[in-house]
Amino acid sequence: MPRLRCTTLRGLMAPSVSIAGILFRCHLTDRRTSTYVLVGDWYTKGHSTLKKFLDSGRTLGRPDGILINGKTGSMKGEDKPMFTMIPGKTYRYRFCNVGMKNSINVRIQGHTMKLVEIEGSHTVQNVYDSLDVHLGQCYSVLVTADQEPKAYYLVASTRLTKTALTSLFGWYGPRLNRAAGGPGWWNLTASAARPNPQGSYHYGQINITRTIKLVNSVGNVDGKLRYTVNGISHENPETPLKLAEYFGVADKVFKYDLLKDEPPTDTEQITISPNVINATFRNFVEIIFENHEKSVQSWHLAGYAFFAVAIEPSRWTPDKRKNYNLLDAISRYTIQVYPKSWAAVTTTLDNAGMWILRSMLSERQYLGQQLYISVLSPAFSLRDEYNIPDNDPLCGIVKDLPMPRPYTA
């Protein structure tokens, strides 16, 4: 029966890949037809050492390799297969990029993959030879064991990097083709639950009430590395942001709206501060991510799903809205932005709270490439937001304050 085996190799991205690395094999005894495959780059140094690098103003540099389901190996070639497939059966593999820095391309030797789900949304079921899974993203594919029974190789390798890191199930091959724009169509006939803004599935017909344009950049402050959004590099205050807002002392902890809806003309001037913007409950907003750098960016919005309506090269202008997918864009919560490109998403801010919008690149997030969106319900009702739990630990300037009036039904 077909088997999947895994190896980790490291090589240069060149016309023909030069590979030198380590071989590993691992085993998962599982008769189910559905399983997760967690891929991601990794560092040999521990998290405390990596934290010291960043705190000292240094970059983490290039990762040391790629893991598949947390496994690496010895190159002895004696390990058992990670997966076993029965001829004729169809299997669902859910690939998730849980790494720290790089986009990962995945493929299975001799087999195609039918894409069926992205981050909880059913997609148009197109067939691919390989897929790029960006940081924080999860894709489900269907793979049928319809080839000659023998060993086949699952490959995971970094994308759009000068140096390629590859986690490989015994597969050797040439340089990968250029990454495609990625799948972008919702399956409108599937039975999955859908967002229902303003009583309609037709998000393309909802008026946009606010446009927020975000530009990521990198710079130095006092000789130390910092990452920014519209020139603001976030840092956490002693008092957690949501606690300060809940207890009515936000003005003593941070200032709202240091980040403007339009980026400044000079993003090299960096302000280090808590980065919180005010937003209006239930407004339908458009967020533009513009990437002027040479590396792929990946952004995640907590608390919401959004419609990924466009990803294009160059820079965004209002005229670009004519290119938006206003019919069947995927509802998701993570979006990639390619080098020298932009991406547009739309969402209804119908979930009261304070929600983080952050880079999924760990180094960038830790050094400031994130912001918080404060969405307050004017009703102060349990319908919109729960009260703080009675056992929630308090700290900072709210530690000894009396509890505020609770929300009511």
TrEMBL record:
InterPro entries: Cu-oxidase_2nd, Cu-oxidase_C, Cu-oxidase_fam, Cupredoxin. Keywords: Glycoprotein. It holds the Pfam family Cu-oxidase_2. Signal peptide: none annotated. Residues 34-160, 239-377 form the Plastocyanin-like domain. It comes from the Eukaryota. Belongs to the multicopper oxidase family. PANTHER family: L-ASCORBATE OXIDASE HOMOLOG, MULTI-COPPER OXIDASE. This is SKU5 similar 12.
